[in-house]
Amino acid sequence: MEKVITNELTKFLIIIGAAVLALTVLMSRMISKVKELYKPYRKQTIIYLIIALLFFAIIALAASPSIISTPSSALIAFQAYFLLLGSAHLYFMRENLKWSGNPKVFYLELIYTLLIGCIGSIAFVFVYRQFNENGLEYAMIGSILLFVVPLLFFQTFRQAISIPPKVLKEWYYPINQEIEEPEDSKLRNLRVISFEFRKHANDPEITNFRAKAPADMEFGQLFYYFINDYNERDPHSKVQYTNSQGEAYGWIFYKKPKWNNFLTQYIDADKTINTNRIKENEVIICMRSVQ
């Protein structure tokens, strides 16, 4: 039994050792690109790593049956611990290692964090084996993967908020301009869709009206014909397309979200029904952009 455990430990050390070596080489190459930023804090970086290893070793003491009696409870405790430790690492790394925190060095931060995790797993396994001989140390070290999660989550969040807001293209009713009747080729492949809109900007009621949409007609052109046709049919309750100064409203269009879709799918008025991927029986929200 002792021989099997020794062989398992040897294999583990070889794998982790190879990972540590590879990460060290990668980190060295990345450091060479930001040498001026990293060099003043080289000593602090090494000290930080050593201190971090102590926290990996200390938690392994909980493997003692006198502290946590069941393996399942121990696994949950380790997972929670390393998730919290990863959060603390994210904060203290940026506070104490001044080369960290710059968006340009994220991959260096990631490799450094992985390096801490790999070396820390060795400390964890050795301490675990001293206090528990159940042979589950290699299963328990999977919890260390959660150590990296806070850094990845933070980077994802930072990337998300750095995305510039989408500039929506507005459509304007062509006042004092005559639009020619559509060509016959554009009137084929009809599909029935619905428009949802307010007849005027302050209208509390939403009107829903079904219309036939040719697949090869531009959406803006379709909405233009729709407004004209609607206003001719109901001259006492027209759809307003100009404000009190006689200026055309800007309109934006998007598909009415379904229960299983939380993303807003905007319609480009300059593109065809087909290109906008508007399907049969879809509902299009037509909204004035009131300044």
Write structural notes for this entry:
This protein has 8 helices and 6 strands, in the order αααααααβββαβββ. It has helices at 2-33, 35-38, 42-59, 71-96, 106-131, 137-140, 149-162, 219-233, and strands at residues 171-172, 190-197, 207-214, 250-255, 266-267, 283-289. The longest helix has 32 residues, at 2-33. Mean pLDDT is 84; it is low at 1-5. The protein has 2 domains: 2-162, no CATH class; 171-289, Phosphatidylinositol 3-kinase Catalytic Subunit, Chain A, domain 1 (Ubiquitin-like (UB roll)), CATH 3.10.20.90. The protein starts with a helix and ends with a strand. Helix 3 (42-59) runs parallel beside helix 5 (106-131). By secondary structure, it is α+β, with helices and mostly antiparallel strands. The radius of gyration is 32 Å and the shape is elongated. Strands 1, 2, 3, 4, 5 and 6 form a 6-stranded mixed sheet that branches.
Question: What can be said about this structure in brief?
Answer:
This protein is α+β, with helices and mostly antiparallel strands and 291 residues long.
Ordered list of secondary-structure elements with their pairings:
Layout: H1 2-33, H2 35-38, H3 42-59, H4 71-96, H5 106-131, H6 137-140, H7 149-162, E1 171-172, E2 190-197, E3 207-214, H8 219-233, E4 250-255, E5 266-267, E6 283-289
Helix pairs in contact: 1-5, 3-4, 3-5
Mean pLDDT metric: 84
The total domain count is 2
Assign a percent range to the helix content.
40-55%
Shape: elongated
* Alpha-beta content class: alpha+beta
Instruction: Summarize the helix and strand pattern as letters.
Output: HHHHHHHEEEHEEE
Low-confidence runs? 1-5
Number-wise, the strands total: 6
Compute the number of helices: 8
Indicate the proportion of strand residues. 5-15%
Sketch the major β-sheet. Answer: 6 strands, mixed
The radius of gyration computed from the alpha-carbon positions, rounded to a whole number of angstroms, is 32 Å
Distance between the termini: 78 Å
